[in-house]
Design brief:
single chain, alpha+beta, 6-stranded antiparallel sheet, 28% helix, elongated
Amino acid sequence: MTPDLSPRIAFREGVEVLPEDSFMHVRHAMAAFRLRGVPPRLQATLHRLVGERVTCDPELEWLCAQLSPLVTSFLVDAEDRPVLSIERLTRTARFAPAPLPAGTRVRLSRFAMSRLHQGDLVLESPLSMLRVRWHSDEAWRFMVGLSAGRAASGVTDAFIHAAGLLEVDIGSGFHESDVLRQWEFHDLLFHSRSRLGRHGEPFGATYPFKGEIPPRPAMKQPPAGPVVELPEPDLDAVSEHDPAFTAVLEQRRSIREYGQRPLRVDQVAEFLYRVARVRSLSKVEGLPYQASSRPYPSGGAAYDLELYLLVERCDGLARGIYHYDPLDHRLTGIEARPADLARILGNARSAAGLARSPDVMFVITSRFQRLAWKYRGLAYAATLKNVGVLYQTMYLVATAMGLAPCALGSGDSDLSARVLGLDYLEESAVGEFMLGSRPS
């Protein structure tokens, strides 16, 4: 990196400084401050910080510590061109760089990631509430040099260490705590970005594509193929014979072995009707898309999940792959090679340690954009929560019906997308659930 770098500070974009009587108002969408008794010299400096990089003296440093969420720290070269900047991602983020002792070895944290953000290369980590934004083409050279570890040098290392992106060798090598060792990079990143507290990105029901992209329809158009009409159960009769709810909860468990007699098509039909049918379609006030009501809950009443049946053995239903239409309560056959069906079922059998394949396996897919059209930052997390409540509904209904249910922890989404004829980015598997007749 350029050796003669010096620190500067400026307000982040969008900050306003407004004097009023004896107060100075410093406002931004992230935070607002009302300062009393600011000396005239500092008042002028506060105005300069809007759009100008200023050298930070001790007095200004103290003031900016109070305004920390609104301050961006820069390293600039001899010609005052920015090399990198440090952005606060949350109101609680603090940045206090200090020189690293001579001889200290540093390396890039394994949780650090580099990506393109708003046209610039950035370096960030789910462990940090700060982001490094590069304004120089030296970024890659700097990061490659840190991959294996080297002696710390200069203000750049101090800045990036203070941003929480470096690991430090304290004399006995680079070590992570036992807690941190048990986190995978993608798990911690997903956790930090799908909840509030460690990022400053738009979040929640922001409808980011409203007016640009039409929302996906509430119902997926069933695929072309042979249709199997399913009988509808009499729910009044079902409720008379069902065990008590508490008994169902207490008896619920995963069952990984099956009876000699296979499931019947009327059992599959009743299971699907009680678990996933569309009870109604409606236009909910305040929602700019059509919603539906089903036996299990869904974020935003969007119902992004679809059910596909992989049938190994079922009286009254041919072996094969089917899509469930929850509105008309019927199945549509999907053309697939027997080898593909056997491969997916074989993967499930292996994952669950089964002696034989389940009678029926449900592949649960998500039409991702159904949620992403409304939610920023939490769309995929909401999908997984939807899968969880669907799993529980499937477990409870299967238990009440005296069937053998078992959810799987994972599956091959790429394989399922190919076999089901889906676009992996538009709709692919997010859950798998096995069902069979219960052994005597």
